[in-house]
Amino acid sequence: MNNIMDCIREGSVLLSDGAWGTMLYEKGLKSTECPELWNISNPDKVFQIAKSYVDAGANIIETNSFGGSRMKLDMYELGDRAKEINYAAARISREAAGDDVYVFGSLGPTGKILMMGEVSEEEVYQVFCEQAVALEEGGSDALIVETMMALDEATIAITAAKENTSLPVICTFTFEKTMNNDYRSMMGVSPTDMVSALIDSGATIIGANCGNGIDRMVEIAKEMRKANPSAYLMIQANAGIPEIINGKSYFREGPVEMGAQLHHLIDQNVNIIGGCCGTTPDHIARFSQIITHANS
Amino acid sequence: MTENLRSKYPKMNDILDKLTLCIERGKVDTNATFPSDMIGDPGADELTRQAITQNIPAEEILNKALFKAMKRVGIRFRDNEIFVPEVLMAAKAMSTAMKHLIPFFDQGLISKKGTFIIGTAAGDMHDIGKSLVAMIVEGGGWNTIDLGINVSTQKFLAAIEENPGCSVGISALLTTTMVNMENTVKEIKENYPGINVLVGGAPVTQSFCDDIGADFYSPEPHGALDFLNEQT
C-alpha cells in the first residue's frame, strides 16, 4: 500500500467511511453504555461496521475510539483501560482494512474546557499522547483529531500526536451556521481561523466533519480553500439534519441525494470525502461510484 | 436609581457601570489576562468589593450590574455575537462578584427569584450546553442547582422533593439520549403537576417538547431565563 500522502499528492480524491456512532446504536448499543468498550465486549459488531465500509469501497476507515481519551472514559470509570481500549479499536479496524485500505485512528474532544482551568494543558497533552500511541501500536496509518471546537485543545492534540507517533495527523472541526450566515464552531472558531492555526501546529490534512449536510459543507470547504488554496482538505458530512419521529432520529438524505451533491466538494479540490452521522455503507457505496468516476 | 440614592452615592453609577462591563467582558480580577484589552484594569472582584465598601446597596449591585451584565451576555450569545468562551468567562466574573454578596443574601437583604434545578438527560454525558443554561439562569438571579450529567429520573424527583416550587431544566445533546427525557418529564408531571419543566439541547425541537409534555423549549439559554422570569 502506498503512503497515503503520496496518494493525495498525486491528486486522487480518497473516500473515507461513514458514521460509526449511529451504526453502533443500530447494532444495539444503549445510550448509557460506553461505545468504545464495545472494542473489548463486542468486537465482532465493531468489526462488522468497519468491514461494511471496506466492502462499500472506502479507501479509509476510522476506528471506534472517538470517545477513547482517558478523560472521556473516566465518565464510565474506564479511564485506566484507555490504552487497551484504543489498541483494540485500531486492531479491529486494521483487520477489517487489510492491506488495501487505510486506518485513521480517531481522537475526539475530551469534553473539558481548557480556558476555564478545569484541566491543565499538560494533562490534556498526556491524555492525547496515551491515546495516539495506543492507536499507532494497534496499526493505524494516520491519526484524526475530529469534531473539534476549540483551537487550544485541537492544537494540543495535534502536537501530542505528532511528537509521540510517526503518523500523519488530520484535524477536523465541527461548525454551525450562525444568524450572521457565517460559520463558527461552538467555541467561536471560524473555518478561516482554524486553517492557519492547525497547519501551523503540524496538521497534514484539515477539514470539517459532522453538524452539517453536504450543502453547508460546500460553503465551509470554500471558506477553507479561500484561506489556504493549497491545504489538503477532508470533509465528512452528515446525511442532512436529523428529524425526530417517535423518539427515533431519521437522517433524510439518502445515498442518491447526497451523492448528487458530491461533485460540489470535488470541485473545491477536497482531497478526502466521507460521511458522518446518519451515513451508512450504502451512502459510501454510492460515493465510491462517483469518486471512482471522478478519479478516472 | 432614585435621586436620593444618586445624591447619597455620587460615584455609584460609575462603579456599577464599570462592574457591568467587567462581568459582560469576563474580566474576573486585576490579575486576569482575559480579555486582553483590559489587562491591569480592576475586575469584577475589586469593583464589587469597592461598591460594598462605598455602601452601595447590595440590591443595586445585583440589579444594576450583575443581572444587567448577564442579561446582555445572554442576548449577545443568542444573537451569535459572542460564543461559549465569552459566556464562560462572564459567568466566572459573575460568580466572583456574587461571592462578595453572599452575606447580604444570608441577612435577607437580597433574595433569589426562585430555584431552578438542571441536569442532562439520563445517559447523556454532555456538560457544556447544560452548564451554559445554568450560568445564564443563575446570572439572572435564580438559585440554580446543577445536578450534573447523566441524571436519572429518581435524582430529578429527589431534588424537586427537596425544593418545593422549583422549576426543572433537562438537556440532551444526542438524539439517542433525548428520548430519555420523555420518561423523566412524565414522572415529574405525575408526581408534581405544578412544576414547570424546560427542555433544550441540539436535537430538541418545539414539537418534541410538546410531544413529551414539557412546558417550555428554547433553542438558546436566554429563552429559559425569560420564561422563568415570566412565571414569577
Properties at a glance:
heterodimer, A: 296 residues, alpha/beta, TIM Barrel, two-stranded antiparallel sheet, globular, B: 232 residues, Methyltransferase, Methionine Synthase (B12-binding Domains), Chain A, domain 1, Rossmann fold, 2 domains, five-stranded parallel sheet, 10% strand
List the helices and strands and how they pair.
The complex is a heterodimer of chains A (296) and B (232).
Chain A (H helix, E strand, L loop, with lengths): L3 H6 L4 E2 L5 H6 L11 H4 L1 H13 L4 E3 L7 H4 L8 H16 L4 E6 L13 H17 L4 E7 L2 H14 L4 E5 L2 E2 L5 E2 L6 H10 L4 E5 L4 H14 L4 E6 L5 E3 L2 E3 L4 H13 L4 E4 L5 H15 L1
Parallel strand pairs in A: 1-12, 2-3, 3-4, 4-5, 5-8, 8-9, 9-12
Antiparallel strand pairs in A: 6-7, 10-11
Helix pairs in contact in A: 4-6, 6-7, 7-8, 9-10, 10-11, 11-12
Chain B lengths: L2 H6 L3 H14 L18 H10 L4 H21 L5 H16 L2 H5 L8 E6 L7 H12 L3 E6 L4 H10 L4 E5 L3 H4 L1 H12 L5 E4 L5 H6 L4 E2 L3 H11 L1
Parallel strand pairs in B: 1-2, 1-3, 3-4, 4-5
Helix pairs in contact in B: 2-3, 2-4, 2-5, 3-5, 4-5, 5-7, 7-12, 8-10
Task: Please explain how this structure is put together.
The complex is a heterodimer of chains A (296) and B (232). In chain A, 45% of the residues lie in helices and 16% in strands. Chain A contains 12 helices and 12 strands. In chain A, the strands form 3 sheets. Chain A has an 8-stranded parallel beta sheet with strand order 1-12-9-8-5-4-3-2. In chain A, strands 6-7 form a two-stranded antiparallel ribbon. Chain B has 2 domains: 3-106, Methionine synthase domain (Methyltransferase, Methionine Synthase (B12-binding Domains), Chain A, domain 1, Orthogonal Bundle); 115-231, Rossmann fold (3-Layer(aba) Sandwich), CATH 3.40.50.280. Chain B has helices spanning 3-8, 12-25, 44-53, 58-78, 84-99, 102-106, 128-139, 153-162, 175-178, 180-191, 206-211, 221-231; strands spanning 115-120, 143-148, 167-171, 197-200, 216-217. Chain B has a 5-stranded parallel beta sheet, with helices on both faces. In chain B, helix 7 (128-139) links the parallel strand 1 (115-120) and strand 2 (143-148). In chain B, helix 3 runs parallel beside helix 5, helix 4 packs antiparallel against helix 5 (84-99) and helix 7 packs across helix 12. The chains are: A alpha/beta (296), B alpha/beta (232). Chains A and B meet through loops of A and helix 5 and helix 9 of B.
